[in-house]
Amino acid sequence: MKFVTAVIKPFKLDEVREALTEIGIQGLTVTEARGYGRQGGHTEIYRGAEYAVNFLPKIRMELAVADELVDQVVETITGAARTGQIGDGKIFVFELGQAVRIRTGERDSEAL
Amino acid sequence: MKFVTAVIKPFKLDEVREALTEIGIQGLTVTEARGYGRQGGHTEIYRGAEYAVNFLPKIRMELAVADELVDQVVETITGAARTGQIGDGKIFVFELGQAVRIRTGERDSEAL
Amino acid sequence: MKFVTAVIKPFKLDEVREALTEIGIQGLTVTEARGYGRQGGHTEIYRGAEYAVNFLPKIRMELAVADELVDQVVETITGAARTGQIGDGKIFVFELGQAVRIRTGERDSEAL
Amino acid sequence: MTTTRIYRPAASAAALVGLLAAGPALAEEAKLDTGDTAWMLTSTVIVLMMTIPGLALFYGGMVRKKNMLSTLMQSFATCCLASVIWMVIGYSLAFGGEGAFHGGFSKVFLTGMTADSMSGTIPESVFMTFQMTFAIITPALITGAVAERMKFSALMVFVGLWSILVYAPITHWVWGAGGFLAGEGVLDFAGGTVVHINSGVAALVVCLILGKRLGHGRENLAPHHVGFTVVGAALLWVGWFGFNAGSAVGANNSAGMAMAVTQIAAAAAALSWMAVEWLRDGRPSVLGIASGAIAGLVAITPAAGFVAPGGALALGAISGVVCYFAVTWLKLKLGYDDALDVFGVHGVGGIVGALLTGVFASKAIGGTAGLLEGNPGQVWLQLEGILATVVYTAIVSAVLIKVIDLVMGIRVDEESEREGLDIRLHGESVS
Amino acid sequence: MTTTRIYRPAASAAALVGLLAAGPALAEEAKLDTGDTAWMLTSTVIVLMMTIPGLALFYGGMVRKKNMLSTLMQSFATCCLASVIWMVIGYSLAFGGEGAFHGGFSKVFLTGMTADSMSGTIPESVFMTFQMTFAIITPALITGAVAERMKFSALMVFVGLWSILVYAPITHWVWGAGGFLAGEGVLDFAGGTVVHINSGVAALVVCLILGKRLGHGRENLAPHHVGFTVVGAALLWVGWFGFNAGSAVGANNSAGMAMAVTQIAAAAAALSWMAVEWLRDGRPSVLGIASGAIAGLVAITPAAGFVAPGGALALGAISGVVCYFAVTWLKLKLGYDDALDVFGVHGVGGIVGALLTGVFASKAIGGTAGLLEGNPGQVWLQLEGILATVVYTAIVSAVLIKVIDLVMGIRVDEESEREGLDIRLHGESVS
Amino acid sequence: MTTTRIYRPAASAAALVGLLAAGPALAEEAKLDTGDTAWMLTSTVIVLMMTIPGLALFYGGMVRKKNMLSTLMQSFATCCLASVIWMVIGYSLAFGGEGAFHGGFSKVFLTGMTADSMSGTIPESVFMTFQMTFAIITPALITGAVAERMKFSALMVFVGLWSILVYAPITHWVWGAGGFLAGEGVLDFAGGTVVHINSGVAALVVCLILGKRLGHGRENLAPHHVGFTVVGAALLWVGWFGFNAGSAVGANNSAGMAMAVTQIAAAAAALSWMAVEWLRDGRPSVLGIASGAIAGLVAITPAAGFVAPGGALALGAISGVVCYFAVTWLKLKLGYDDALDVFGVHGVGGIVGALLTGVFASKAIGGTAGLLEGNPGQVWLQLEGILATVVYTAIVSAVLIKVIDLVMGIRVDEESEREGLDIRLHGESVS
Ligand SMILES: Nc1ncnc2c1ncn2[C@@H]1O[C@H](COP(=O)(O)OP(=O)(O)O)[C@@H](O)[C@H]1O
Ligand SMILES: Nc1ncnc2c1ncn2[C@@H]1O[C@H](COP(=O)(O)OP(=O)(O)O)[C@@H](O)[C@H]1O
Ligand SMILES: Nc1ncnc2c1ncn2[C@@H]1O[C@H](COP(=O)(O)OP(=O)(O)O)[C@@H](O)[C@H]1O
Questions:
Q1: ipTM over 0.90
Q2: Which ligand 1 atom minimizes the distance to the CA of A55?
């Protein structure tokens, strides 16, 4: 099994989720994140004091997938999350050792 | 060493943490997450406009553990987090390469 | 490639980010987290009812790096995030299978 | 032009002083005074503000985030429902006639309240609306005890019936023409019994029958945003001047003194609660000082037109400490789950205030002497007023909620309570 | 001492009743009454509170978090700009003279408003400031329709010009000496046409030209904090007493009755909206009941001094249901993106209220009979008032926004809309 | 019935105009006027609202989230403590007698304030409570400078002593019978010196001694929720009518004109701050326009009963720009850490306002001519008032805070500052 972590632009979340659903993905978990990268940040000024805001809002999404699906998943995310503008984000793929579905105790591929 | 990531129902957090403490786990990190899965979501209507809320609140918990503890940890989480209802969540186990305690610089098993 | 996840004290974020920038790191992603560990928590009392707050605010930071940079990165984080007080946090290092830059589709070391 | 009733006879001595000072003789009582009317219009506005947004925020900040909207909803919907019920039947039961126990049905749907009906020196329309704001906040207070677990539909039914069967009659007893408590000389300037003891005791009864929240005593049920609670407390405080000084029913000396002592008692109670908490817990909490202020405001409510500034200082300081112990010790001891401490603050604070009114009442201020001026009988009278209210509201509220429980159920199911009332009952969530 | 105008002739019968009840004869009309003045000072304060913070919060809670500050800014900056414009020219155009269509330029920069100028029984300074608060809230209401996508600079230009070219003249028509609608007997006690129909229709026109928000109909555009919206609605409600009872321009019977019926209509509309929503969607939403209350307040605005409590109950209940359908059905049907439902609540509610004023007006309350008392002509008069307002505001608003679009553009670029107006237009963000 | 003092002699000319217009002759000065009393009751209510929740929210939104509750606490507890101190001793020192520098001890614990004591046409109880709300907000303003790092215990000690040693005497100088500044003809209608210069300068002194926040100039100390700040600013604005128009001590022409010019100056200052910020930083910030409004309200405070609308427009526009530079340039230049800009807005705004009162004062409005009407001497008088206040408050505040520092320490330890005052000092946190 593989574990895919993707960092994307927040407003792309729904599109990406829909695209993944279409290729049969049934579960994923997201967290709100802030990203630092080439995209740079901006400056906020409050009563004369300037603060550099280096981090921009991102969505961090993770999903466990069967080995054979991983390429398709990466492609799907890339396709749906791309705007072509700097800051579109990254996808990381890890080896996943074990997966368990808490409700049933099912393991690994049955747990996804 | 292994690294365990679990996605659970928010109100189960305290129970799970207590159960883990009982088997000797001394540290873990949690983040607020939203999960998409078989549990489905719900619909919110604001002034006639319907919005499908596909993501439900979850707690994402992660902890690094020694290899020999991992099965016990998985069992403990499964036991404490289970309600038997759809949406109880998942546990994922990864291989952990290195661990460092920032305060002391201790490494690996001493760092946990 | 390696993937480094660090849990640090929130007010250390800017220092750590700057230190990493100085050694050439160009991207990272952070999430707000709460940590349970030796640092312990505190008690809040609301109208006579005591609640143990076991989790303390932490920043969870993650970055993908080339294999040869990983030691330097770990050192840099350790140096910048250390206060010497309990609760400074942990660094975990994982093996990273694949990395993709969504904007361009670039892979692996080019994607970081 | 018709003048239908004498307002709040207990306050009449104080009002007399005010009227004499203001000039116009009492004989011409039906003549509209624009100054009195201006103040009563204003008082009405700010007493409404006490419930929405004041109480709504005070309570909304104290619940968990997943129940915030449902808690706001309880205040807001109570405001709407109680308004309509007051207009339809409540006002008539309270002020429609001269029975000993209720006022009858002559003013149902505000029949007979014409464009020029007067109530003393103000239009009856203003008096009716001013009283309506009291009829709103009293049931709204109760909702704090049942927060985070009661069915909204059942709550609405309860609020509706309770307004008719409990609130309106008790109002008549104390303030209505011929009401039996007023006749006996029980002092209640602005609603210590009618509003606070009444709602506090009903709240206790209802939450006992409803049962504790899931996880009570084990899980973290801490307030999700004490900031909202502080804002709510502040708006309650600000609006309370309409409540207390408005109960002088005019812009007179009595109103002025009621305002002064209200401010003094609230401040004293806030500080005394803070002090005792600082001593016992090692730190003064923000929720604590805000709770103390409300306790002081509750306690000064029956006393406002009757005590001097010095008495108010003492009364406030005492009530802050007593309510602190009611909330942090008595409640834990007895183990009930009065979620937002309606009984501990309003019930106990109301009782303390009603008794201390009998202690600190000053002839020079409101025309009636209290214990300290050598009139111990007043304390007994106050006790009578308290007992009558406690017994009646406890019994009727209990019967009411039991019946509603049998008919439709009063508690949400476990899963809804876990997930939160906002999303389950109202289909909405705060981000 | 100079007395410059007769205020709101449509309300004069009601005012007369009030004045007679209050004692002083109309002949001495230039004499300051401290009670009337006190109430009008208060009314001015609370009508200002309706816009900031009331409307600001009401709207601010309904947008997405990334646009919350920009939405607050729209209300706040409109408040500032409309104040200055009113002082410079608006007041003069509305109340500076006796033309049929506008009041002329004699009071530009408040020339001639001296320390002792009177307006009836209150200082002209108070009257001018009271009216200023109406001139503030009317354009501020419009901003709800354009939320989350309009350029702030363009909005300010629009608000400035609209205040002069649309708001001031229409005010004169209805309330100014010699204004053509007032002369004909159109009833508008507190601004149903001037404020609500006017802003609601302008809002519709502007949002049609501006276009829909990105993602409209596909993405989740739900309110980020209904709690703020409820607080805002509550402050609007509370302040509305200044709006409606203040429009009696004194602390009299008319003010009292206006207050009573305002409360009744608001409560009835909130409950009727809740009821229909509960039936259709299976649950009563918090946003729903709050919206219903506002709808009722809008609808009772033209009627406040003219209808009896029973009429207000019916008027409120009807308007809650009609606005519910305007917002949840009509809008979806026609497909425009009136982001925060300015047209559905203020436009439609204002029209319903204006018509029902003609239906429920009671001779005993405000001096004019409506349809139910056998005067069907009043409904036609009301219709005339509505039509004149709708046509004028629609045309001028459309031309105005088109011209501004050509000159400077009215919409932010796509990236700014995605990222949020707070950070892009104002450089700030809510944590 | 006793009448104890003449209120605010500087304003007497204006008041005279008002009284004459209102009818009753000054001879019967002890007679209660219900309209005046109604307005003063209302003014008291809304000036209290300025501090809680107004100022509390204004400040609470500007700090980091971890310090929000502690900031609310500072305003709330100051409100309580200053109330009790005013009742115990402050009122007496300010208004208890006719000394040149303080009023003596004759009214300690409000001795002698009976049910029928009058203060002009209103009950003394109302006057006392109205003044109490000024005694509350002045020290509460100071807390903005020490936010996020001062020990709560030390702050309470400071507030208590400062209220007695600084606030009460200066109030006497300017508004007390026999006060030396009033006697010389310094104009301060509603507290430009007493409240704003006083608190602004004390704030500067205290924050200099307290030292900068950890991370000042390096870390991000940005406001955690500008939304709360906007709501707070709006409530301050709304309540300010009680402050300024209430300072006419009656519902008269002077109050009306004070209200009008207050609105105009606030709006003008908000727009001028916004304009200069837009030009310099390329975008108008929400915090900016809100700050500008407060700056304008501060500046118009001494001038409210003395200037005409045109003067107010100019005064407001100037003060917005000056305070903008005080806050964004002067502060950075000098490098002190006045966390929430109490000096920049209240100190500088107060000084600008006091001077411009001397420039724009109009004989027709308030009875005194200013520089523009050919009376340059008034500017010098204003300068004298400013200097006396600045010197006294600076010295006494400095000594006071130094002594408290020696005795108990005034600053929290570094770890508490890092973790946040909410959890460390009050044991609570905002979710
Ligand atoms: N090395 C990295 N490790 C983890 N996250 C990264 C890394 N580099 C970038 N990111 C994340 O990806 C986001 C986008 O990266 P950025 O460099 O701004 O643009 P792009 O992906 O278009 O090159 C960043 O905001 C950050 O959240
Ligand atoms: N493939 C997956 N990868 C990552 N997280 C998942 C995956 N599938 C489910 N989850 C997480 O687990 C939660 C529960 O899953 P769900 O399918 O709803 O119920 P259950 O675990 O009972 O089968 C989801 O809300 C999501 O957060
Ligand atoms: N085994 C673990 N797995 C994951 N996170 C951990 C683990 N142990 C500690 N942490 C994280 O590190 C933080 C600091 O740990 P703690 O034991 O309090 O102090 P220290 O790092 O100084 O030993 C914790 O708050 C938690 O977020």
A1: yes
A2: 25
Are D and B touching by the rule of 3+ CB pairs within 8 Å? Answer: yes
**What distance in Å separates the CA atoms of residue D52 and residue E233, rounded to the nearest whole number?**
9
Which domains can be identified in chain E, with CATH numbers? 13-426 (1.10.3430.10)
Predicted pLDDT of residue F263: 98
Distance CA E304, CA A75 (A): 63
Query: F348: closest CA among F306, F371, F320, F370?
Result: F320
Q: Is the peptide bond prior to E284 cis by the omega test (within 30 degrees of 0)? A: no
For residue F423, which residues of chain C lie inside 8 Å, CB to CB?
Answer: 42, 44
Diameter over CA atoms, chain B: 58
Task: Name chain F's partners: 3 or more CB pairs within 8 A.
Answer: A, C, D, E
Q: Would you call D329 an interface residue with chain C, using a CB distance cutoff of 8 Å?
A: yes
Q: Residues with Cβ < 8 Å from E28, sequence gap 6 or more?
A: none
In chain D the first and final C-alpha atoms are separated, in Å, by 54
**CB F277, CB E427: distance < 8 Å:** no
CB atoms within 10 A of CB E337: 19
For residue C91, report the distance from its CA to the centre of ligand 3, in Å: 9
Residue E25 has a pLDDT of 37
C interface with D, Cβ–Cβ below 8 Å? 44-49, 51-53
Per-residue model confidence as pLDDT tens digits over D333-353: 999 999 999 999 999 999 999
- Chain C contact for B94 (CB, 8 A cutoff): yes
- Ligand 1 midpoint to CA A89 (Å): 5
CA of C85 to the centre of ligand 3 (A): 12
Per residue in A45-95, pLDDT (tens digit) is: 899 898 888 999 999 999 999 999 999 999 999 999 999 999 999 999 999
Q: Which chains touch D (3 or more CB pairs under 8 A)?
A: B, C, E, F
- Answer whether F71's CB lies under 8 Å from F147's CB: yes
Do chains D and A meet with 3 or more Cβ pairs nearer than 8 Å?
no
Determine if the pTM surpasses 0.80: yes
Report the C-alpha dihedral over residues F82, F87, F93, F94, rounded to 10 degrees.
80
Q: What is the 3-state secondary structure (H, E, C) of chain E?
A: CCECCCCCHHHHHHHHHHHHHHCCCHHHCCCCCHHHHHHHHHHHHHHHHHHHHHHHHHHHCCCCHHHHHHHHHHHHHHHHHHHHHHHHHHHHHHHCCCCCCCCCCCCHHHCCCCCCCEECCEEHHHHHHHHHHHHHHHHHHHCCCCCCCECHHHHHHHHHHHHHHHHHHHHHHHHCCCCHHHHHCCCCCCCHHHHHHHHHHHHHHHHHHHCCCCCCCCCCCCCCCHHHHHHHHHHHHHHHHHHHCHHHCCCCHHHHHHHHHHHHHHHHHHHHHHHHHHHHHCCCCHHHHHHHHHHHHHHHCCCCCCCCHHHHHHHHHHHHHHHHHHHHHHHHHHCCCCCCCHHHHHHHHHHHHHHHHHHHCCHHHHCCCCHHHCCCHHHHHHHHHHHHHHHHHHHHHHHHHHHHHHHHCCECCHHHHHHCHHHHHHCCCCC
Sequence-separated (6 or more) residues with CB below 8 Å from residue D137: D47, D50, D51, D55, D195
> In a 3-state reduction of DSSP, which class is residue F3?
strand
